[in-house]
Design brief:
By secondary structure, the chain is α+β, with helices and mostly antiparallel strands. The chain has a single domain, classed as q2cbj1_9rhob like domain (Jelly Rolls), CATH 2.60.120.620. The protein starts with a helix and ends in an 18-residue tail after the last helix.
Length: 355
């Protein structure tokens, strides 16, 4: 009798667990759909003048004193520095750092770090994995794109952050953005070959952070077509392409998506404006990836691409934790990094490839 009762209890418990699991999956799907809808609304607002004004006003209201301080510091900087920078309408600038003396130690450090941290394109034992597990790995961005550095690496190599806070980098971002931005991310990005069709950032897209931002992608080794060069469409043309692709999709009953295929972009004439960044080590692009459609990392077998990556945002985003004390006596540089040690700030270290 006790055994029978025990069996009934066990079966009831299994049924309850299954029902709870189904409910949790349902809640998870609802949550994912809500997040997707929120992102879709945000991207829509960012592409419309009224939405841009709303988002900019919201950013001011969240931290009015901080915003004002950053604009005043930028104005003081402009009065003493008159160099050029990103084209305001196109949202980009092609830069060559290879002949700048301050870049030489940065290049050497990046190559040294790469030698120590380079990872193979496939995890150990990949070939023996079941087909479904292999397919799941290859469907992820990590299968072809890796962040290599940690906050500790940046503290051991302060020349990388010093370079990111220089006139030619932070200064250019400040001039374009009209305020001292938040330096969010300093890293080495390592791109590898991936079999099959293009996915994720290998397709045309806009980045989600803020109304505007500036990213530097600086080549650490020579890049040609085999290395999957960074490619983009200037911001003024991107605005037209986004509108025309939306119309093109609607006419054909294609579902909306924040990724755009080569065929879609070509169908509305966007590929005629495509800019591809190739050249020797030190060649770089400074670009507003919130306004310019872009893609990259289409690396061919037998090679790779390594870039020094710097990100400057007008909103608080995921960030490295920088050595703020090091820049306590320099207002502009301090403003660029002081947010990074605020309590509760999301950290990039959590996404490090070696975690």
């Amino acid at each position: 009798m006790l055994r029978r009762v025990g069996g009934l209890v066990a079966r009831a418990a299994r049924r309850a667990r299954k029902q709870a699991t189904r409910r949790l999956k349902g809640f998870g799907e609802v949550s994912r759909q809500a997040r997707r809808a929120q992102k879709d609304l945000y991207f829509w607002a960012r592409q419309n003048p009224g939405g841009q004004l709303m988002l900019e006003t919201a950013a001011w209201m969240r931290a009015p004193n901080d915003r004002l301080q950053r604009r005043r510091a930028a104005a003081a900087y402009f009065s003493s520095k008159h160099e050029g920078g990103l084209d305001p309408s196109g949202g980009f600038e092609v830069v060559s750092f290879d002949r700048m003396p301050e870049f030489a130690p940065v290049l050497a450090s990046c190559r040294q770090l790469f030698d120590a941290k380079r990872v193979e394109s496939r995890p150990e034992g990949f070939e023996s994995w079941p087909a479904d597990r292999q397919a799941k790995f290859l469907s992820r961005k990590q299968s072809f794109f890796r962040y290599l550095l940690t906050d500790q690496d940046l503290r051991r190599h302060p020349e990388l952050v010093e370079f990111a806070l220089g006139d030619r980098t932070l200064g250019a971002a400040t001039r374009y953005l009209g305020m001292v931005p938040y330096l969010s991310h300093v890293d080495l990005v390592y791109s590898l070959p991936r079999p099959g069709g293009n996915i994720d950032s290998q397709l045309f897209h806009l980045d989600p952070e803020g109304l505007r931002q500036v990213k530097f992608f600086i080549q650490i080794f020579d890049v040609g077509e085999p290395q999957g060069p960074f490619s983009f469409i200037p911001a003024d043309t991107t605005a037209r392409v986004l509108h025309d692709v939306a119309v093109w999709r609607k006419q054909r009953g294609v579902a909306p998506s924040r990724r755009y295929s080569d065929e879609e972009v070509a169908a509305v004439g966007g590929s005629r404006a495509l800019v591809t960044v190739q050249g020797p080590a030190g060649t770089a692009i400074a670009i507003d990836t919130s306004r310019c459609l872009h893609l990259g990392s289409r690396v061919q077998p037998g090679t790779f691409r390594l870039m020094l990556y710097l990100q400057y945002c007008t909103t608080r985003e995921q960030t490295n934790a920088f050595d703020v004390e090091r820049f306590s006596g320099e207002e502009m540089r301090r403003l660029a990094v002081c947010h990074s040690i605020e309590p509760g700030r999301a950290r990039f270290d959590a996404y490090h490839v070696a975690r």
